[in-house]
Write a structure and sequence with these properties.
single chain, mainly alpha, three-stranded mixed beta sheet, 8 helices, 3 strands, disordered C terminus
Length: 315
């Protein structure tokens, strides 16, 4: 159903929606900027390497994020007319894309932990079962939200807006609960990563060793901490929006600004830092290979010099 109105009472809504669209554009810009910065490394470390499941996960999360950001940006432009059907389709994309991205990022983390625990089958089964439980619950809640989503096209003073509402409100409450489950899973994953890393660091210290293994664990823990910190920030932000009256305590425009900040945080956490979990490891591996090649060349040069000096003395 389309509602047309030129009532000045709608002007605050128009201004607030325009401000919100700036944050959507900013999220798309951040996504594109990171892609442009890392594209050279992506070509070298992803496209030109032997393909694996991690390659597919990287490319899917990366370019699904770009598509998601662009579609959000187009949907937020008030000069583009969207029908009720198109608005509902975009709403479904908005709901299911983060769901799919979160699941793929969890697969990346599971793979990293499986490798850190020397391919332990028990750890793998535990992580898969808990991840499936969280994602199945999230999937059910997403289906309920999709079923109870209603959209309305608004034409206000020559601008086009799309109004979406979720009924009943209990579904929105369940959606917030899924974030709590995600936090719990991330905390468990972080504890497992920190535990095995500390264990390896202590073993290496006792044997007066370090080198490649210690540096590798340091790289994994560093990237995992960045991911975990950003994820907790996004989840806490989301829970504050859902369980506290903060949006009702601020004015209409500020509530749109708060929601816009969440859009940027969500895009950065999922579609920027997610692919970096793979890219960072690939970069470290490439550095090790390059250092090994350099050491081999230097050894070869030194050997040839010693051989030349020895031959000269013999003559």
């Amino acid at each position: 159903m389309t509602m047309v109105s030129n009532d000045p009472a709608w002007w605050p809504t128009i201004n607030a929606n325009r401000t919100f669209s700036y944050f959507i554009v900013a999220a798309c810009v951040v996504m594109t900027y990171d892609w442009a910065l890392t594209f050279g490394r992506e070509v070298e470390l992803i496209w030109r390497q032997r393909w694996s499941p991690m390659t597919v996960l990287y490319l899917t999360v990366r370019y699904l994020g770009i598509l998601f950001a662009v579609m959000n940006m187009l949907a937020s432009v008030s000069t583009i007319l969207l029908s009720d059907t198109v608005s509902l389709i975009l709403s479904m994309v908005w709901s299911w894309t983060p769901f799919a991205a979160f699941a793929m990022v969890q697969v990346i983390i599971i793979t990293r932990l499986h490798a850190m625990y020397q391919r332990s089958r028990k750890i793998l089964i535990f992580l898969i079962v808990t991840s499936l439980a969280v994602n199945i619950f999230n999937g059910i809640v997403t289906v309920l939200m999709t079923m109870h989503t209603s959209g309305e096209e608004l034409i206000l003073s020559g601008t086009y807006l799309c109004s979406l509402s979720y009924n009943p409100e209990d579904v929105t409450f369940l959606y917030a609960i899924t974030w709590i489950f995600f936090i719990a899973w991330e905390v468990v994953a972080l504890c497992l990563a920190v535990w095995i890393a500390l264990k390896h660091f202590l073993e290496l210290r006792q044997h007066s060793a370090g080198g490649i293994i210690g540096n590798c664990f340091a790289v994994l823990i560093k990237s995992h901490m960045v991911h975990f910190t950003s994820f907790i920030a996004v989840c806490c932000y989301m829970l504050i929006l859902n369980f506290t009256p903060i949006l009702s305590m601020v004015n209409f425009l500020d509530s749109y600004i708060i929601s816009g900040v969440f859009q940027i945080l969500q895009v950065v956490q999922t579609f920027v830092l997610g692919p970096h979990l793979i890219l960072g490891v690939r970069e470290y591996h490439a550095k090790l290979v390059a250092d090994a090649d350099t050491a081999t060349v230097m050894t070869s040069i030194a050997f040839q010099e010693r051989l030349h000096i020895s031959t000269g003395r013999g003559v």
